[in-house]
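Re: adenosine-5'-triphosphate structure - here you go.
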Amino acid sequence: MTRFLVSLLRPYHLRLVLSIVLASLTTLAQISLFAVAGYLISASALHPMSVLLLFVPIIGVRFFGISRSVLRYAERLMTHDVTFRILARQRVWLYDRIEPRTTRLAFTMGHGRLVNAVTHDVDLLQYIIIRVITPIASSLVTVIAVFFFLAHFSQTIAWTTITLQVIAGVFIPVMTHYLGKKPTKRMLDTRERFYAQWEDALVGMKEIQAYGQESAILQKLSQEEDNLIQEHNKIAQIDSLAVAAVPWFSQVAMLLVTVLAASLVVQGHLKGVYLAVIAFVSLSSFEALTGLPQAFLQLGAIKTALTHLQTIASTKKDLSDHLETTPSSISRHTLAVRNVTVTYDTTLAPAVRHVSFDLPMGKKLAIVGETGSGKSTLLSCLVRLIDYTEGSITLDGQFLTQLAVDDVRKQFSVLTQDSHLFHTTVEDNIRLGNPAAPLSEVIDAARKARIAQCIEQLDLGYDSLTGEFGAQLSFGEQRRLALARTLLKDAPILVLDEPTRGFDALLEQQFYETLPSITQGRSLLLITHRLLFMQDMDEILVMQHGEIVERGTHAILLKENGLYARMVRLEQEQLTFDLPKEAISGTLSMW
Ligand code: ATP
Ligand code: MG
């Protein structure tokens, strides 16, 4: 963890040193102000022969008074500057780490904890500089400087002050840290649960309403909020005790130092004019320690935040780092999958086992099969979202793993099973497929995806906002918009995972009618549960438990009368009720 922290701060070490120097100078200016003021009061009380003798301390009071404010301003500017630079870089750094691990992190941490890491954990880093490193370093400088200053007058006074400083600046903060450890851990766990419940409640609002669970959810949330407030209160109690303890010690120090100094004055070992100076220096030196208990109280939370960030950074990537040795020269766009096996985690059974197929340019290949049989997993391997464990995939004879990931992804236009719409305009959502495309092509893609008419009816047309999670559009409309995005990308291999999910029967039929024109000059890999339009496919792979159990054309598979034929029969029985006769007549006649 220390190495991780050092790597985080290394690029800013000069600014950090400057912050510490400024913080130390500010505290020293403050102490000097008290010292000179003490001297001025005492010297004035002794009625000097000439007022001119007071001239230097008066200037000193002004000088330290002004320099304290200026230095404090400069120190705040510098510490916040370093902090914000780190925070800004940290979020980009974190995104860079999350992006190649999306599949694994979504599985191991969940989205709630990832959001927590991007917001709270990164925010907590600001405490490291503002509340921990700078105050600890500057208080160390102050304590040493004050010790030597006081030792110049009396060793006993110097040791008395430093002993109380160690109690207030080390013992109390360490105590605070240990007392706050458990409540902090409980607070962090409760907060994580609380946010996860909020996320669930917001995303699943409709289900909650439909099942009449509003009051149960509210009760759960308010119970969790009470727990959170309770833990915050416990931490606040420890915090306030610790904050009060430092001034208490400063008063004790001043009292002791005054008594010791007074006895030295009585014994004639110290000039009376320095008594107030020593007492004030001792008192004001504790100012440097006031933030330390709070800093130590935050240590537990900071440690947890750093652990989270480190866990994210050290999670195995979805794709291992391959040496990209082959310069890409893909012209025939021929895909060959050989004996591919995919295992998500060593503890889990393979999601795909020994799958082989060819997809030469222009071929239309369908992958069908029961849910959970590994279809989408296979797709993720092809477009290099995850690694396969065994076997090989080649494009024009070149191993996918030896090509640059971007070069591979350029070969595919993909519609994933759970396509996401961004909180932006309809046009921008489609344009993601090809940011350079003119509006005419965006509209053309929308037409092919059967969504153009629907968009034109919106008040702002292509400038309408789709809303977070595409909330202003129906599910079928969202899917069609995502399909338009896929169609806009003019890649040689079109990969569609359940493209007509959420379509009504008529729309689905229209889509499959236009599919030949959409796929003209491209290869097609279609993953679907709908077997109604399979006659046009050059090959159909039937998957079960991660394996290909049947393969062939629609006609051949029907003749074989195996799993595929059974699935077609079942679907037709179902569809006889919800499709117009003419739509299914083609399939029925094949049967
Ligand atoms: P469906 O028809 O329901 O979309 P599918 O054939 O696409 O199913 P996959 O999504 O490929 O099936 O899943 C295959 C298996 O892999 C399933 O058992 C699933 O639980 C598992 N799986 C999928 N994604 C992950 C993941 N990120 N981590 C671990 N296991 C996963
Ligand atoms: Mg799937």
